[in-house]
Amino acid sequence: xxxxxxxxxRAPGAGVxxxxxxxxxxxxxxxxxxxxxxxxxxxxxxxxxxxxxxxALIAMAFGRLPAPxxxxxxxxxxxxxxxxxxWTGATMAWSIVPDRSWDSFNRTVAYAAxxxxxxxxAAAGGRFSARLAAAMLSLxxxxxxxxxxLAKAVPALDPEGDxxxxxxxxxxxxxxLALLADMALALGLWxxxxxxxxxxxxxxxxxxxxxxxxxxxxxxxxxxxxVGVGVLVLWLALSSERVESGLLLLASGGPAVLVGAWAFTxxxxxxxxxxxxxxxxxxxxxGVLALVGAGIVAGLVALVARRALT
Length: 310
Fold this sequence. Notes:
Blueprint: H1 2-7, H2 14-33, H3 42-61, H4 71-90, H5 98-125, H6 129-153, H7 174-193, H8 199-218, H9 222-238, H10 242-264, H11 267-270, H12 276-305
Helix pairs in contact: 2-3, 2-5, 2-6, 3-5, 4-5, 5-6, 6-7, 6-8, 6-12, 7-8, 7-9, 8-10, 8-12, 10-12
């Protein structure tokens, strides 16, 4: 069973992996180029998703990809999303600000396109689709959170950092970034504790939990912290690897909390309208501490992964 679990990620064919990479690229584009709560990124992000979905449907029509089997609940979900998009478009007929309604319609169509991509990926991946999607999400969110911390350590990467101290790049909104960190907590725990995962995968899971915890703290998002606590409680309640999960949280979350606690003592990292010189100096120290913490986490997780717990 363990050996089968280790090879499950390699089982899908090259075409499925390429599709997974394309969906992940589209999702990364939505995060990095989505323009936060503004509307400037809707057209490129949504257009890319719609184009990729159209290409997948054409491949499906020619038998290159398997057709999805939605079932009753899946059909209700798709019908609800399509109905919402249609209703949003119809409201332009009586809206007093039709341009805003048009933007809302475009955003809803982008949401529907990403839902369609998820369904196509699930059909192509078969029984490996959950692992494929989780691995893809882990990679995309890890890149996002790492970039966010890098922008805090190197102020030149965040032009608005002198005005707003809360961690928010590249998403553009701290609460949205905090929700990505909450997702990363669950994904990191899965990578770090699931039976059959190699030691390197467990270390990657521990590092993802570390980056997620540190990012969550630096967003200063109270709602994000509450959701994160809820994610951990649900994980520990539902997971069969509670001991392993607890050890991983201690090994990964502990160093992140220590680095975050130091950051809270530096006004240039946590208060708005800070001077650039202070941000540069404190950001450099934060970067060094974050790297040291990551090294400690990797060592601790590797040490724990050597032992099989009963």
